[in-house]
Each structure stands twice: as structure tokens, then as C-alpha cells.
Amino acid sequence: MDTQILDINETSISIASKLIHQGQIVAFPTETVYGLGADTFNEQAVSKIFLAKGRPSDNPLIVHISDNSMLELIAQEISSDARILFDTYMPSSLTVVLKKKSTVPDIVTAGLDTVAIRMPRSSQARIFINACNTPIAAPSANTSGRPSPTDADAVYQDMQGKIPLILRGDKCAVGIESTVISLVDKPIILRPGIVTQTELESLLNKRVDIYSPADGKLVNSPGVRFAHYRPSCATALFITRNTDEVIKYINSIVADRVCVICKQELVDKFGHVDTISLGIDDYEASRNYFGAIRQAEANHDYIVQVFYPEQEVGQSLLNRMTKSAYGNIYKE
Ligand code: TXA
Ligand code: MG
Fold first, then answer.
1. How far is the CA of 331 from the centre of ligand 2 (A)?
2. Distance from residue 9's CA to the centre of ligand 1 (Å)
3. What is the arithmetic mean of pLDDT over 303-308?
4. Angle at 36 between CA 33 and CA 37, to 5 degrees
């Protein structure tokens, strides 16, 4: 299959929405990461997403809506907390898990009786969903297990030959995936993101916990089981501000083609080793992270990530980095 990339505009959106109605899948921009979308109510179309990504069928998808009228099509009951979020806070980089309507196919929710719902802040995303005139089920548009794509070229890297169309919109302004909060029971953050615990607690005026696998709590958060964000080469993570330790470590590595990914303030500290700057603060670092990983893996054998969170969003980025480094982690 030929994969076309078209700049997002009225014409390309009309082509994309026709493809969606024909049961095809299309990649589209959002402010967090690019998504790979299908008509939520077309099971065959949704199955193509799992095939293109190589995604395990027991990992449910997020359903994307462009306005609150679509909410009624998929959520069985909209609790008062959900009302607060959808009426006063959306669109946003936030996904809300609610009890689903029985009309939402099992393939979308991996058989759960809940559905994850998101109204993206990106107007490009919402115009696309609105043109499709149906809620769009979409995971991130990467091959399963790989770093999420934050521009159309990264989508092309993973999806070339597997999908008919990529809509090229803005480079993602947030850069890490949405915060996922479940409101099925007591509010709990299943995946941290740019919308923080502090912000959600003040919006809902109550305590909001963050899910941690280490707690051993039984929460239906299928995504946390799977491998995530792995570059094609080896990688390690240093959670530290102490560069002496990292430099010592780098000098001990036998691989030649090493790349350090770190904040701007550290880039000059690693001698002749290649470095990629994540920018000056944790927001910039989140925006640049997945792009930096893809850039580094292209021509290096080993990626050393050096990071220390300074803002709440830095903790969300650290969640991605920790999964990417998969146990190869050193903490000061
Ligand atoms: O920012 C984002 O959320 C992006 C863009 C494209 O919108 N999408 C995204 O989708 O990151 P994905 O599939 O890569 O991650 C979806 C996460 C997974 O961790 C999944 O397990 C969780 O949401 N999820 C989906 N449905 C759920 C449900 N009913 N209950 C609990 N978790 C759910
Ligand atoms: Mg993903």
C-alpha cells in the first residue's frame, strides 16, 4: 500500500473523512502525539489499527471526540466530576475513563465495560474528527512498543506501507500523551501527562490519586503492562543533576556511537560525545523528548538519557523515560 502524506487543509481533511467512512485508517495530528484513527463504530476498521501497529488486542483505545454531543454516543453515565471536566475544561490534553455505552464495540475497549474519552486541544484534530462526524478511536500512531510520533515524518517511519494517509499538521506542542484519569470509581490518574494532579485536584475540588504499579492496587489500566517507547538501540537513564557521575559512566562505555539526551544546561559538559538538547525547562523537554529519541537512535548505538524533574510535568516525562530505559536506570 502507498502511504500518502498530505498537509492538513480542507481538501485533505475531506479525503481523510471519506477514507474513514470507507473503513480505512488515517493518521492525524493532535497537540500531544499523532494518532492513528478509525471510525469507533466500525469494528473492521478498528481491527486495522491493531494490525498496523502490531498492538496487543487487550490494550484498549482512546475514543476522540470533537464536541460534547459525541460524548452522549459513547458514555453510559456522565458523573458530576466528568461533567465538570467536559463542561468547563475540555478541549484539553486529558483523557477521561467512564462507563461505556453498549454500542461501543468490544474491540475498542478490549472487552472492558469502560471507555477512555478525549477531546483534543488541537483544533486541527477537532476539525478532522468533526468532518468524520463520528467519534474516532485512535492510539498513538507508532508501531507498538516504539516512541510515540510527534511529527508526520515519525509516523511515516513506522507506518509507511501500512496505512493509506497521514495528515501532516503542526509538530506536537505538548509532546507526551494525554493524562488519563479514571472517574469510574474514586478519581485516579492512570497515566500522568501535562494536565497535572494538582490541576485536577483543584478542578474537582477533591483528592486525586496517581496509579502506581508498585502499589499493587488492582486498577484496570491495561496500558501499564506493555513495553513502551523503546528506541531501536540500547538506552540508559540517569535521574540526577550530578553530571560527574554520568561522565564517568560514559567514559566506561565500550560502544563508540553514544548520544547523550539532556537539558540545555548540560549539553556542553560531555566533551566530544554527541548530545541532543531537550530545551530549557520540563515543558520544552516533554515537547522534544520523543523526537530526540528518534533522532538519536538513527545514528547511534547507545543513548544515555540524563534528567532530573524540576516541575510537576517533569514527573510525567520521567514516567516515559523510565519505560524507555526499561530497568537500565540509575538514580542519585
Ligand atoms: O495523547 C493521547 O492520549 C494520544 C493521542 C493520539 O490522543 N493517544 C494515546 O493512545 O496515547 P494510546 O493508545 O497510545 O494510549 C492509550 C492509553 C493506554 O495506556 C490504554 O491502556 C489506556 O489509555 N486506556 C484506554 N482505554 C482505557 C480504559 N477503558 N480503561 C483504562 N485505560 C484505558
Ligand atoms: Mg501509545
1. 26
2. 26
3. 97
4. 120
Phi, psi of 277 (to 5 degrees): -85, 135
Above 70 in pLDDT, residue 157? yes
Cα-Cα-Cα-Cα dihedral sign, residues 71, 76, 77, 81? negative
What residues form DSSP beta bridges with 284? none
Burial of 311 (0-12, 13-18, 19+ CB in 10 A): middle
Q: Which ligand is nearest to the CA of 150?
A: 1
CB–CB of 149/34 below 8 Å? yes
Please work out whether the CB of residue 138 comes within 6 Å of at least one atom of ligand 1.
yes
121 and 33 within one domain:
yes
Q: Residue 293 belongs to a domain with what CATH number? A: 3.40.50.11030
Name the grid cell of 181: 484519569
Global confidence as pTM: 0.96
Domain CATH for 82: 3.90.870.10
CB within 8 Å of 50: residues ≥ 6 apart? 56, 57, 107
- Going by pLDDT thresholds of 50, 70 and 90, the confidence category of residue 139 is very high
The total number of structural domains that make up the chain: 2
- Between the alpha carbon of residue 176 and those of residues 4, 74, 280, the distances in Å are 25, 25, 17
